Amino acid sequence: GDSPLPIQTIDSSGGTLSNLRAYKTSDRIFITGSLKKALGQNIPASAHVDVQLIAADGTVVAEEYDDINPSHPRLSQARFGRVPFVVSFPLVGVGEAVSIIVQYHPRVHSA
Fold first, then answer.
1. What SS3 class is residue 100?
2. Cα–Cα separations (whole angstroms), residue 62 to 16, 57, 69
3. How far, in whole angstroms, is CA 94 from its chain's centroid?
4. Which 3 state secondary structure label does DSSP give 42?
5. What's the pLDDT tens digit per position in 13-35?
6. Is beta strand 15-24 parallel, antiparallel or unpaired with respect to 97-105?
């Protein structure tokens, strides 16, 4: 079912995050959504989405990323300017998370 955790997005130049959803299965939490590329912008090969689960004190409980590859055949919506993403975490160990932060990065960055 849907997760009650609020999702905060941080967009970068070149793209906007949309259609965000967090839901739980019996053993994982999934965060899904799509990246809409900005008009006239290309999504570079190094593009990715970072997802962080945040505790009440602001610390990062868990962190994962999904590479965005708009040329991948499974991403048929990419030609329409939207590229889907999905990240998941095991439920074990993320119980203290109170919110989710999702950020698009067009380029590689340090952790």
1. strand
2. 23, 14, 23
3. 16
4. coil
5. 778 888 999 999 999 999 999 88
6. unpaired
